[in-house]
Amino acid sequence: MSTQPNPTLDQLQVFLTVAETGSFSAASRLLNRAQSVISYTIANLEEQLEMQLFDRAGARQPKLTEAGTAMLEDARRILSNVDVMRARVKSLKDGLEGELAVAISVLVPSEVVVSVLREFGDRFPSVSMNLTVGELGTVMDLVSSGKATIGLGGAMPEYDTSLIAERIGHSLMVPVAAASHPLASIERPLSITDVRDATQLVVTDASGMTKGRDFNVLSYKIWRVGDVTTKYNLIRGGLGWGGLPETLIRRDLAKGRLVHLNLDAYEQSGYPLYSIRKLANPPGPAARWMIESFRAKLGRHDESV
Prior knowledge:
CATH topology of the largest domain: D-Maltodextrin-Binding Protein, domain 2
Strand content: 15-25%
CATH architecture of the largest domain: 3-Layer(aba) Sandwich
Distance between the termini: 71 Å
CATH superfamily of the largest domain: Periplasmic binding protein-like II
Radius of gyration: 29 Å
CATH class of the largest domain: Alpha Beta
Largest sheet: 5 strands, mixed
Strand order of the largest sheet: 4-3-5-12-6
Number of strands: 12
Structural class: alpha/beta
């Protein structure tokens, strides 16, 4: 039974350096080793693998064989994974989180979420991300249970003293209906009487954390849905009216697909957005950076709306 090849990381690094520099001499200078050591290392690797990696015959510079070209990608991947592991170990020693579990409310503007997460990935490449996007109650539930390190969403119940909330911005909810909906054709300001008999679409919090807390529910006839996306699609389809985040419907309003209802009885002041965490679980460096980044970007976003 033949022994399976077991190349060392050093052999793979030498192999990769020779392939990328194009010569044994260049690799020896870059790695600060004698050229004979480089040649011996490659020969030993080829013996282990039982295949020739470089064609040395009739050429001043070694040329990768077909097998060597195939092995090059494996070597790059293995060494890259080791670099990631080393960065993670260093980060953990420095106090940086290995993984960050984040729960984000659908009320947080999606363009802000994408911008923050893009910068987060560049700044903290060694930190894994566990991201959940959901309704307010889901966010609070995940933070309260310890399944999320930080949550980003609306106000939390006052009775939950185990959580800490810090305001980082706000989200504007706008009452709208499809352009084809009867309410959209009324040119005067709407009264409660106008909307009482019209179907209002309301998001029901599946977590139960906000049970009994209905916001801006004005109609007698209510259709409850499980998430904002479903609510948005049904309102666009003309099945009812309701409040939606301004950032979600900005394009629909501009294109005339949705109509902003002039309804004084609907509270349109911005819903405050908070960073939420457990009192007993203070955020680490990556979590603190994320909170401050959301605070800064949501502030600039408020000014641009």
